[in-house]
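Figure 6 in text form: structure in, sequence out.
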C-alpha cells in the first residue's frame, strides 16, 4: 500500500524522534534507491513493529490465560 493510500485511510499524527547517523544514512540510501520518502519508510518500520508487538501481546495473554486456568484447576493459582 502506498503512503498516499494509507494516508487516505488513517489519520496520521506527528511523531518525531532522533536517530543516530548510521540509521539516518541507511534511511537516506533506501529512500534514494526506492524513491520513497524517508518518513514513509520510518512509518512502515514502526507500523510493522507495532503489529509484531500486538501479536506478541495477544499470544502472551492467550498463553497466560490458559496457564492460569490449568493452575486454578490444580489449586495452585490465584491470590485467594
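Output sequence:
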Amino acid at each position: 500500500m502506498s503512503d498516499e493510500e494509507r494516508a487516505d485511510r488513517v489519520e496520521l499524527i506527528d511523531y518525531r524522534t532522533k536517530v543516530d547517523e548510521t540509521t539516518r544514512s541507511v534511511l537516506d540510501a533506501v529512500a534514494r534507491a526506492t524513491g520513497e520518502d524517508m518518513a514513509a519508510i520510518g512509518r512502515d518500520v514502526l507500523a510493522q513493529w507495532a503489529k509484531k508487538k500486538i501479536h506478541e501481546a495477544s499470544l502472551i495473554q492467550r498463553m497466560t490465560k490458559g496457564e492460569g486456568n490449568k493452575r486454578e484447576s490444580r489449586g495452585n493459582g490465584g491470590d485467594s
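Caption detail: The radius of gyration is 21 Å.
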